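Standup notes
- DV: blocked on the single-chain target, sequence here:
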Amino acid sequence: MTKSRYDRIEQFFRSHNKLFFFVRIIYKFSPYPVYVAYPLLHIYLIWQGRYAEAVRFVVVPAVTFVSVTVLRMIINRARPYEALDINPLIKKNKSGQSFPSRHAASVFIIAMAFLYVNVWAGIALFILGIIMCASRVLAGVHYISDVAAGAAIAVILGIFGFYII
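- DV (later): unblocked, structure below
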């Protein structure tokens, strides 16, 4: 993304108040259904007596979260609002650690867990994850490559952790 491209995006959303409001709402609230659904999945697995799966559904997301956290500390990529000197739609005070997106990795590893248990719930969370990732790019806090890498890491670790092991 270039400064001029993001400036056009920013001007478009700021000139369309309802769309701007919508992006801010999606940005702020889209992670919550995922983070509420995740413990409910654990409760469901325990209620079903699927204890080994319940443990795996803690370990695989934890490994994903830690892996992405360490990777982003090592890479320490500047965020778009830092590198491009843009006026982001959503103000954030964090510097660096943009790549890969931890939000994207979290939502997609949880979607992978749900996909393992219920295909339709997993697909719904994948769709929500795509929407959340788009809002983070539109907000100016991540590049497309940040959210794509976070999602890809989560899907790869999810396939390995839920389907291969």
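- Follow-up: The longest helix spans residues 51-75.
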